[in-house]
Design a protein that fits this description.
- The structure is a single chain.
- The chain contains one helix and four strands, in the order βαβββ.
- By secondary structure, the protein is an alpha+beta fold.
- A hairpin with a 5-residue loop joins strand 3 and strand 4.
């Protein structure tokens, strides 16, 4: 069996406790811009570099809801 050839990353998602603060930090420090929401009821944002590229997702979860 041939090993799986991974050619890139499309997105990464982080669980955060404060969506607004985390989104602002990534936009200011990492230079990402917020994309329009696909799911307006969900406490999340999707960010990408202004020139395009991989996406960074932030989803707000209380600490007890986090996944290991």
């Amino acid at each position: 069996m041939e090993p799986l050839a991974i050619t890139g990353i499309s997105h990464i998602e982080f669980l955060v406790s404060d969506l607004e603060a985390s989104s602002a930090w990534y936009q200011q420090v990492v230079g990402r811009v917020e994309l329009p929401k696909l799911l307006p009821d969900r406490r999340s944002v999707e960010l990408t570099p202004a020139a395009g590229g991989f996406r960074l997702g932030l989803t707000e979860k209380r600490p007890a809801e986090g996944q290991g």
